[in-house]
Amino acid sequence: MSATAVTEVPVRAGGGLRDYAVRVGTGLIDTVGEVARAVAPSARRWVVIADDTVGALYGDRVCASFGGADAPLLTFPAGEHNKTRARWEALTDAMVARGLGRDSGVVALGGGVTGDLAGFVAATYLRGVPVVQVPTSIVAMVDSAVGGKTGVDTPAGKNLVGAFHPPAAVIVDPTVIRTLPRRQRAEGLAEAVKHGAIADADYGRGIAHRAEALLSGEVEAIRRMVLRSIEVKASVVSRDERESGLREILNFGHTLGHALEAASGFGLTHGEAVAIGMVLEAQLGELVGHTRQGSAERLVEILQAVELPVRRPPELDPEVVEGFLGADKKVRAGQWRMVFLAELGRVHDAGGRWAHAVERGPVRTVLESS
Amino acid sequence: MSATAVTEVPVRAGGGLRDYAVRVGTGLIDTVGEVARAVAPSARRWVVIADDTVGALYGDRVCASFGGADAPLLTFPAGEHNKTRARWEALTDAMVARGLGRDSGVVALGGGVTGDLAGFVAATYLRGVPVVQVPTSIVAMVDSAVGGKTGVDTPAGKNLVGAFHPPAAVIVDPTVIRTLPRRQRAEGLAEAVKHGAIADADYGRGIAHRAEALLSGEVEAIRRMVLRSIEVKASVVSRDERESGLREILNFGHTLGHALEAASGFGLTHGEAVAIGMVLEAQLGELVGHTRQGSAERLVEILQAVELPVRRPPELDPEVVEGFLGADKKVRAGQWRMVFLAELGRVHDAGGRWAHAVERGPVRTVLESS
Q1: Catalytic site residues of B?
Q2: Interface residue of B127, B241, B244 to substitute, partner A, most A CBs within 10 Å
Q3: pLDDT (average), residues B333-358
Q4: Residue B96 and residue A154: Cβ atoms within 8 Å?
Q5: Of A84, A273, B118, B170, which cross-links A268 as Cys (Cβ 3.0–4.6 Å)?
Q6: Cα torsion angle, B225, B228, B231, B232, sign
Q7: Considering CB atoms only, which of B102, B156, B329 is closest to A101?
Q8: Does B149 belong to an annotated binding site?
Q9: Is B124 part of the contact surface with chain A (CB cutoff 8 Å)?
């Protein structure tokens, strides 16, 4: 398929790092090589990193987009449990074994795991080479591929090791969503619902209205949704690249979400855990008075329309979940901190402070009543 | 010992990152906690990372300088062969196990290995926490602690994995050099000789004149030498933080030096390998016409005065050494590139290009005739 209309969303990288653009358009998967060379001309040799599933689906096309130049595909086994320091090490060594120098670049082709893992490989390879993010899942398109966060998990928690390494470009082709299983499409919609919840209530409600088109992977519905979510995320990221302030609002649902995901041994997907996390954090916000009553219920309606879970699975013990809260990066000085909604479409803001301390009592109450 | 006069050398971090200062003065080892808190006020909990040798010598004093607050010492076994991803992983996990969040900071207390390793831990911990470099070897004081390079080795070569992570501060106390063995003092002088070779011929000759005072660890001689070297390095780094151009001149002696060091299985220390590398690269420069005749011989005289080797050890086969050149970061598009002297005190500059392609033939000639 040849590329049709392309929409570019600019992103400010911040911290003196180079700005970049997210390109959204059907058929763009076949332009990766051309775009990569244009945005990172110092990189003369490229590798494409993908998990084995995505590699089998799209690896050939992306490698071919480099026009016959040697752009090998490096794969690793699919799954969040492979987002580890050991895989990072193996991919790095595979690049070293090919004699790749500083004049090399990495294409991260895949979902959030690949983007984070391959991004961290690029961030640390010879102290940093360019990465082009080519997200192939909804969650990666609307969330993880934009913003420059890279990293891997450790046994103690998610993303505990990593680096800020903004991409040279992000290339989003909504047609690749058709090959995703329905459950993975639903999962990705959790981050889109989050963008609605923190920044645009109409957008959030619209996701519920177009639920079936989105869940079945209808390309135009996906394209519009992805574009709006990227606009929300790019706007937040551009105003605060290093998460010192505003960017924290993107963590809505993620403090409890990460703990639930880790407590489940990653039996819950990231999106499912964030969906439940958003509901619980909205309920918590209502309980402590930051959030308008009824907001959690409105979130529940949207999330259920896109077939996402909204309750803590009964087998996840509240005490175990709380144990994983302690390992979260968002803990400061031993104090739990979270972002709260003011209402659907807007976060609670105490004079430019977006993350707020919360006591253990209400957290336990909400976890137990869920 | 209480602190006496302190000299501050400012360093521009570049890339939008925060500038920092190198503080040089006798007795400063006891001010680390105070300085760390002042330069990184967001870090409320600190860890001190050192190898077991340096930890035993200075760990207590540095931890005590935090004035009774919990600033634990994390140690690892001494030696370049411990600058690995496995040690990085273990130190990271030790920090996670202590529940350290984003409001933490790292003191890197030790030589170049510790600075690189602990710096890389800080660079990647929760995507980056502040590091204060407290170099305790000459090579670390005059070279590795300034400039923001962090990283670890892989079996294929040195520093193949890492990050740019400028320190929040560098604290240099020349009195700690007294506890170094003479051979390690000599080793560190290799980088100081390099600063003379690339930027200040008088300084280079002065090192030879004051050789005995420097080798025996006389504090005032060390202090002056360290200060002048830091000035040279800070000047170069401040003009080019990301090694795209001028900073490459600091690699003089290092392309062949790294290959020799790796080929020796790290039997040669870094400084010894760089000493030989500088001589060979000066000879190579004379051979290909970039370097004034006799420059290599003048370098040899200075290096011999400070008891450093100037010839390839006969057991290191030239072909094996060349094999390690291929893995070096400074290779671009498969082409070997090196910085050459124009003469002692000045590098060869071809219109703002500092690293120059070199053919394999002359490299082999120089390696074989050494």
Answers
A1: 127, 149, 191, 233, 243, 247, 251, 254, 258, 270
A2: B127
A3: 87
A4: yes
A5: A273
A6: negative
A7: B329
A8: yes
A9: yes
Would an 8 Å CB–CB cutoff place A329 in contact with chain B? yes
Q: What share of chain A is helix, strand, coil (3-state, %, to 5)?
A: 50, 20, 30
CA distance B198 to B347: 5
Max avg pLDDT among A63-67, B65-69, B232-236: A63-67
Give B41: exposed, middle or buried? Use CB within 10 Å, 0-12, 13-18, 19+: exposed
Confidence at residue A176, expressed as pLDDT on a 0 to 100 scale:
96
- Dist. CA B98–CA B153, nearest whole Å: 26
Does A247 participate in catalysis according to the annotation?
yes
Bridge partners of B152, per DSSP, are B161
Strand partners, A154: A157
- B159 and A127 in contact by Cβ < 8 A? yes
Of B15, B102, B330, the CB nearest to A16: B15
pLDDT on residue A89 = 98
Collapsed DSSP state (helix, strand, coil) of residue B169: strand
Given CB atoms, is A84 within the 8 Å cutoff of chain B?
A: no
To the nearest whole angstrom, how far is the Cα of A359 from the nearest Cα of chain B? 18
**Region B209-232: what's the mean pLDDT?**
96
How far apart CA B309 and CA B366 sit, in angstroms, is: 16
Q: What is the pLDDT of residues B194-211, one digit of tens each?
A: 999 999 999 999 999 999
Read off the pLDDT band of B18 (50, 70, 90). confident
- pLDDT > 90? residue B241: no
- Return the number of other C-beta atoms located less than 10 Å from residue A7's C-beta: 15
Annotated ligand binding at B137? The verdict is yes
Residue B239: CB atoms within 10 Å: 12
Q: What is the DSSP string of B195-219?
A: HHHHH-HHHHHHHHHTHHHHHTT-H
CA distance A162 to chain B (A): 4
Closest CA to B325 of B315, B317, B336, B316: B336
Q: Identify the weakest region by mean pLDDT among A16-25, B103-112, B200-209, B291-300.
A: A16-25
For chain A, which domains are there?
A: 7-179 (3.40.50.1970), 182-369 (1.20.1090.10)
What pairs with residue B199 in β-bridges?
none
Quick check: is A233 catalytic?
yes
**What number is the average pLDDT over the span B52-60?**
97
Other beta carbons less than 10 A from residue A359's beta carbon: 11
A258 three-state secondary structure: helix
Q: Is B330 annotated as a binding residue?
A: no
Both structure tokens of A310: 């909204």
Whether residue B2 is predicted with pLDDT greater than 50 in this model: the reply is: no
Query: Is residue A18 flagged as an active site residue?
Result: no
User: What residues in chain A have per-residue pLDDT under 70?
Assistant: 1-4, 15, 240-244, 326-334
Name every chain A residue with its beta carbon within 8 A of the beta carbon of B93: 154-156
If we measure between CA atoms, which residue out of B141, B136, B147 comes closest to residue B235?
Answer: B147
Strand partners, A1: none
Gap between the Cα atoms of A110 and A171, Å rounded:
11
Percent of chain B at pLDDT exceeding 70: 95
Two structure tokens written together for B297? 């011989």
C-alpha A297/C-alpha A209 separation (Å) is 16
Contacts of B92 in chain A (CB under 8 A): 154, 160-161
What is the complex's ipTM, to 2 decimals?
0.85
Q: Higher pLDDT residue, A349 or B62? A: B62
pLDDT of residue B338 exceeding 60? yes
What is the crossing angle of helices A182-199 and A219-239, to 10°?
40
